[in-house]
Every structure is written in structure tokens, then in C-alpha cells.
Predict the 3D structure of the following.
Amino acid sequence: MNKNNVYIETYGCQMNFADSELVMGILKNKGFEVTRNIDEANVILLNTCSVRDNAEQKIFHRLDHLKRIKRENPQAVIGILGCMAERLRKRLIEEKKIVDVVVGPDEYRRLPEYIDHAFGGEKGIGVKLSRTETYDDIIPYREDGISAWISVMRGCDKFCTFCVVPFTRGRERSRSLDSIVNEVKSLSERNFKEVTLLGQNVNSYNDNGRDFADLLSACADAAPEMRIRFTTSHPQDLSDKLLYAIAEHDNICNYIHLPVQSGSNRILELMNRTYTIEHYLNLIEKARKIIPGVSFSTDIIAGFPTETEEDHRMTLEVMKEVKYDGAYMFKYSPREGTKAYSMTDDVPEEIKIRRLNEIIDLQQQISYEINQSLIGKEEVVLVEGVSKKSDEFLSGRTDTNKVAVFPKSDDIKVGDYVKIEITRATSATLFGASPVPVEVD
Ligand code: SAH
Ligand code: SF4
Ligand code: F3S
């Protein structure tokens, strides 16, 4: 067995997935090989998430499974990367005997060193956070494909009271605009067709006065045949300039992920979200004027401390008013070290579950209605691959990020843009007919 075969599993947000590609880039530079088969690996890395308790429980279960591998191959090095590394640090090594290295998001350059020491039987922890690290010069390891992501900034300074991210990812810092644009160009040369610019709050991107709107426009101009997406926007600093940048570039997708979290101003204040529902709804209205046809998705938390039925009802009202195309919906999960952790988690579990289910049901109904209204219309889809359910169909996504499925045809291949007519829809999928290739540039 090659001594340096690395297997990595990624949990959590897209930024963690982008980080895993960085980590593989760093390790490949030092002579490691990447494997998709855990049984061939002697370095097993889990890139972890701490955002909610169930995310961490998943990793603990996974570690229990990995005991078997460690038993069969005691030389194997097991490493915890990502947000749990930052949050639990020493505890992971002390309590989970099989863990050899614990390395947080700003110390990945030193990972090869830690792994080498672990081969020599030495356990290691690297969890310092940095004010400057952006991995600007690292070329991530990416397999060929259609879609890629690029982290354009790291960290978060918002300190929403429920959220562990500012503690696990450290202070906000931006990568240089030029290096991002160069990476987009090189993705375009490799025939990638879509790139998602990532950050916990991309609207506060700042490279010596060049803001996120400048960055988006520069990326869109550098690769006119590519779709440019981005996430996440915080409602506090979504600028008019950004909305116009989206409107003025055909290849910047008309889709904004704009987490609202709650529909109640009292709860928003306790969450330290720094906007009111009135501000939020004005923003949606303005965006719809500037970018006709723009669609929105959101994040919602059910059962934040002190949330009443009235607060919950206000969340449902906002959902009905905005009519999100999609939503990520969660039960509040107390995280040690955050401000909300000192508030009493006083909404009983069964009420949290009931409220969450009401939110999920409503969103499903809204998504269904929006998708039904698209029947008979034409949509341009970027072809991503064969449909999961049938070889006879292809699947891709619309500009507004909806999954669309349509019949295969000889003149259409993965990476093409096609126009389809929508004939049927569920809350999650559009079904189309008569695909025709279209030129985009
Ligand atoms: N930076 C992004 C989101 C980061 S985390 C933003 O500001 O919107 C993704 C989502 O997880 C959050 O939007 C929030 O809805 C949810 N989340 C974060 N902490 C949580 C917690 N303690 N309990 C439940 N959901 C949480
Ligand atoms: Fe967490 Fe708020 Fe930062 Fe998003 S903006 S990562 S929710 S602290
Ligand atoms: Fe999870 Fe860390 Fe992302 S906590 S959501 S992996 S920033």
C-alpha cells in the first residue's frame, strides 16, 4: 500500500467542501495521493461541521465506525479537520483515542507536517485562527466537472447570537480580487460552466476598496460562458450596486440566498441579526424591481429561546409574503460559547418540532405553487448529467437554481445549455420536453 494515500470525507457547508479541495491541493503538493476508497487509505480525514448538535453527533458516530479500520490498520492516521477541530480541540484527542490529528480551518498548510508526525506516533493539534490566511496561492485539487466553488472570503464578524461560525472560523478576511478572477478564468479553460463564490457573508467582501459587486462583475466579464452564483448574502449589507451588477450581467444567476431566520423583530433582535423585517421586505421588493424574475431562498430557525406562537406565526407570514423558491429550515440548537447559550432554551422539543414541520409544510406548498406556475413556460438549463432516476433523461438546473429533468437527445451533452418547455412539476423538480441547444456568451 502506498504510504501516502489520503481519503477525505466532508460535512457541513459548501465552504467546507471548498476547503477539502484546498486540503487535497496542499497534500498533493507534498506527494500525497487522493483516494476515494477508504480501505485503500492510510490517512483518513473528516472535515467536520459544528453548526448544530446533530452535525457533531454524526461525526461521533462516524468515529465509532472508524475504530474498525484502525483495528485492521493500526498505522492509519485519523484526522479531524474543520469546525469541530476548532470547537473541541484537545477533547477530541483525549476522549476519542483513535483521533491522531486535529487541525482547524486556518492551519491547513501545516497539515502535511502533522500527518508526518502522526506516522511517527505523535499526536498533533493545530487550531490557531488567523487574521490573514486566505490560501490565496493554493491551487485546489478539483476533478473535472461542470460546477466548481471558490471561497472568496473566510470567517465571519457578524456574531449572530445562535451561531458558532465566528468562533470556529475566526475573523472575516477577503481573498484578492485578481487571484479569484484568475481562478475563474482557469476553470473556464478547463470547461467548467458554473462557479459559486462562497463566504459566510459575501456582501462584506473587500479587497482594498473593491467590493463584492466589483468582484461579481469582474468574474462575470472574465468568463461570459460560465454561470456565476454566490452565497451567502446577509440582509444587512446587500447593496443596490450588487443588485444592479446582477441585473446587468446575463451570466450572474438571478437567484439570491437571503437568510431571514425569523419573521419576528423581537426574535431578530435577540439573534443580533441587525435588520428588521420591514428592512428585509423592502430589500426583497427592491431586488424584484431591479432584477425582474429574481428568485430567493432562505434559512429559518424554529424555536429560538423565548419564541412564542405569535413570533412563529410571523415567520409563516413572511414566508407567504416573500414566496421563497426554497428554504433550509432548522430547529434551534444551543451551541456552547455563543451568546444565545446563556439564554434558557425554553421552547420544548415537541413544540420546536411542530413549528418546524409547519414551516416545512408551508415551504413545500409554496415551492409547489411556484413550480406549477412555470408549466408551459420555457427555461434555459445547464446540463449537469444523467437523471438519477432514469438513463433516458438528463438533468440540470435553471438560472434560478431549480432542478429540471428532460429527455436525452443525441445532440445534447453535459455542459451544454438547452432551452426546454416545462410540462410538469413537483415541489422539488421541473420536468421538460423538446430540449434545444442554445448558445450562451
Ligand atoms: N452565514 C450564513 C449561514 C451560516 S450557517 C448566514 O448568515 O445566513 C447556516 C444556517 O444554519 C444559518 O443561516 C442558520 O439558519 C442555521 N444555524 C446556525 N446556527 C444554528 C443553531 N445554533 N441552531 C439552528 N440553526 C442554526
Ligand atoms: Fe453565523 Fe450570522 Fe455569521 Fe451567518 S452571519 S455565519 S449566521 S454569525
Ligand atoms: Fe458548519 Fe463550519 Fe460551515 S460550522 S456550516 S462547516 S462554517
Q: What stands out?
A: Residues 378-438 form a domain with the OB fold (Dihydrolipoamide Acetyltransferase, E2P) fold (CATH 2.40.50.140). Residues 349-372 form the longest helix (24 residues).
